[in-house]
Amino acid sequence: MQVVIMTGMSGAGKSTALKMMEDMGYFCMDNLPIDLMERFVDLAFQDGSRFQKVAVSIDIRSGENLESLHDVILEMKKKGLNVQLLYLDASDEVLVKRYKETRRSHPLAGGQRVEKGIELERKAMEFLRGQADFILDTSQLLTRELKLELEKIFLNGREFDNLYVTILSFGFKYGIPTDSDLVFDVRFLPNPYYVEGLRAKNGNDKEIQDFVMGQQNAGKFLDKLEDMLRFLLPNYVEEGKNQLVIAVGCTGGKHRSVTLANELYKRLKNNCTYGLKIEHRDLEKDALRGK
C-alpha cells in the first residue's frame, strides 16, 4: 500500500499534480490537516477497501503542525506502508509571475508584497525539502512534462534522481541564455548556412543533420561531451542541484546547435534516470526574409 505526501511551495503546481495523481489511480485528498492524516490513511486502506494508493497534499497553511509531519510519516511506515514525500518547487521569479497571472494573494503575504510571502514560506518549508524523497522543480515544466515526470516516478516505477535537465540550443547572435548552467560553443563546425540549398532548412531537417553529423569532429565532440555529462550529472545530484540547463550554441541557433542538441538529447535519453527535455530557443528567429 502506497502513500504519497505532496508538499512544497505555494504556486509550484501541487493542485495540478494532485489531479494527475488521481488520473493515475490514486485516492487523493487536497490540503489535508496533518492531525487527520493517519486516520484518513487508515480509513482508505481498511479491510475491503478498493484503494491501494493514496496521495495527500499539504502546504504552508498547516502552520506549526508541519513539524509533526516527520513523526506521522514514521508511524505510517511502522504500519508497513510505503510512504514517499514529494516536494514541488519553483524559482521565486516564476512563483511571482504565476501569482500575478492568477491575481491570487500569497497565504503568508498578508498586506505585504507577494515576494515577502514567498520568502517567509521558503524558510518555513526548507526542512521538508531536505526530507523529500523526490524534488520536482516546475519552473520550466509544461503541464504535460510534469505529468510525464510523475508517471516516471509513481506509475512506471523507474529509478529517479532529483534532477531535471534541459538541453537548450541557441544562437550567440541573440545572446547566451541567462539561465544556462553549462554553455558549449559549436561554431567550430562548418556552417550549413553557407551551403547552397541548406540555408533555409534547420537542424530538425535530415539534410542539415546529415551535413553536420557528416563532419568528423561532430561525432568526436558529442562523444567527449556525453562522457563529461555522465560524470557530472550524478555529482550535481549529490550536491543537491535539481535543475540544470545545458546550452549548445552556434551563430544563429538554427543549424549546428539544433542538430547537436538533438543528438545529445538522444544519447542522454538512453537509460536516463533524470528528467530530460529539449528546447530550441532561436530556431525561428533566423528565418530567411528574402535574403
TrEMBL record:
<keyword id="KW-0547">Nucleotide-binding</keyword>
<dbReference type="Pfam" id="PF03668">
    <property type="entry name" value="RapZ-like_N"/>
</dbReference>
<keyword id="KW-0342">GTP-binding</keyword>
<dbReference type="InterPro" id="IPR005337">
    <property type="entry name" value="RapZ-like"/>
</dbReference>
<dbReference type="InterPro" id="IPR027417">
    <property type="entry name" value="P-loop_NTPase"/>
</dbReference>
<feature type="binding site">
    <location>
        <begin position="59"/>
        <end position="62"/>
    </location>
    <ligand>
        <name>GTP</name>
    </ligand>
</feature>
<dbReference type="InterPro" id="IPR053930">
    <property type="entry name" value="RapZ-like_N"/>
</dbReference>
<dbReference type="Pfam" id="PF22740">
    <property type="entry name" value="PapZ_C"/>
</dbReference>
<feature type="domain" description="RapZ C-terminal">
    <location>
        <begin position="164"/>
        <end position="284"/>
    </location>
</feature>
<feature type="domain" description="RapZ-like N-terminal">
    <location>
        <begin position="1"/>
        <end position="155"/>
    </location>
</feature>
<feature type="binding site">
    <location>
        <begin position="8"/>
        <end position="15"/>
    </location>
    <ligand>
        <name>ATP</name>
    </ligand>
</feature>
<dbReference type="InterPro" id="IPR053931">
    <property type="entry name" value="RapZ_C"/>
</dbReference>
<keyword id="KW-0067">ATP-binding</keyword>
<protein>
    <submittedName>
        <fullName>RNase adapter RapZ</fullName>
    </submittedName>
</protein>
